[in-house]
Amino acid sequence: MSLQNTPSGERIHISLFGCRNAGKSSLINALTGQSLAIVSDHKGTTTDPVSKAMELLPLGPVLLTDTPGLDDVGELGALRVEKTRQVLNRTDIALLVIDAEQGMRREDKELLTLLREKKLPRLVVMNQCDKMPQGAARQYEGEEKALWVSAATGENIHELKEAIAAMRPDAARERHIVADLLSPEDVVVLVTPIDESAPKGRLILPQQQTIRDILEAGAISVVTRETELPKTLHSLREPPRMVITDSQAFAKVSKDTPRSIPLTSFSILFARYKGNLAGAVQGVKALEGLRDGDKVLISEGCTHHRQCNDIGTVKLPNWIRQKTGVEPEFVFTSGGEFPLDLTPYRLIVHCGGCMLNEREMQSRAARAAEQGVPMTNYGILIAYMTGILERSVEPFPEIAALL
Description:
Layout: E1 12-17, H1 24-32, E2 50-56, E3 60-66, H2 74-87, E4 93-99, H3 106-117, E5 122-127, E6 146-148, H4 157-166, E7 187-191, H5 205-216, E8 220-224, H6 229-235, E9 242-245, H7 250-256, E10 263-265, H8 266-273, H9 277-283, E11 295-300, H10 311-324, E12 329-334, E13 345-350, H11 358-370, E14 375-377, H12 378-385, H13 389-392, H14 397-400
Parallel strand pairs: 1-3, 1-4, 4-5, 5-6, 7-8, 7-9, 9-10, 11-12, 11-13, 13-14
Antiparallel strand pairs: 2-3
């Protein structure tokens, strides 16, 4: 991931839904001015959700997702429709695309009901209006705003972009990884281990984003490895405002950082940034109740290449075994894969979610809560197992009060 690129987790997710041949793919191409999606007169050309990161003015960085038709048929079609519905969990703005000539169908109405239940910002797009008989009335009966467009002729495409921009979610709410805890010229020490799991030649995404957030606060970031941390702290004229570490180095960093200096981890900061920190702190207590054979789901939001000593599939299971003295059954998921039915699991351990947007992370946490399954976070779990959880959440008094 380049420092110049906006991560997908930070982009506004715009998803297009509708029946086959409603012109979703054509509409994406019209919105972007590029031939990003395959267009065909044959029904069902789009067989899986397809996402494309790009700039969509006047909105800015977005992730556009084209989905299979809601009216897909057969056993395979049903699976595709289910994939389409799963896209709702990461959608910030939903466009329900209707064939203007055919009008709204049963599947469209069902999805519209679901969009209302999820309280998703939404817009009904009556597409292909150029195919309507000349002089035909443009009517839509519904409470949602509807816009009549033609992907083929470009009619009202500019107006559609403006309407989408007006629905920008949480435009007034500022979110920060750590900047809200800092004052200008504060010094923050970032501990970034360089081991076999570190990408060669670059920092991992949470480290990049945290550095950027610190700079935007007018503060100063000092980056070091855990092996050089003692000398780094000694070389500073004044104690830093905070030390932030990769969770894997928590134990050593805690030992080398004076107790008077606030300490936390990238993973914990991202749980806070995505809005799941309180639930993750409460969920970690389920570790004590694990028994032999209990299922533990370890889920990562990205699909990186697994190393021989991978944090999710190797280190965490080993540390859990050592801490609890039991042998759970571990299940692993990555990327967009996250079970609908979580009831078989005794505990869910999720990564910080830097590659997932806020809506998807909160959707996963809400699903776990609804099904009564505790869900925690890599950093919180490691802090708990090393006995420093209270210290690691002290920078967030409202969270510390939960312990």
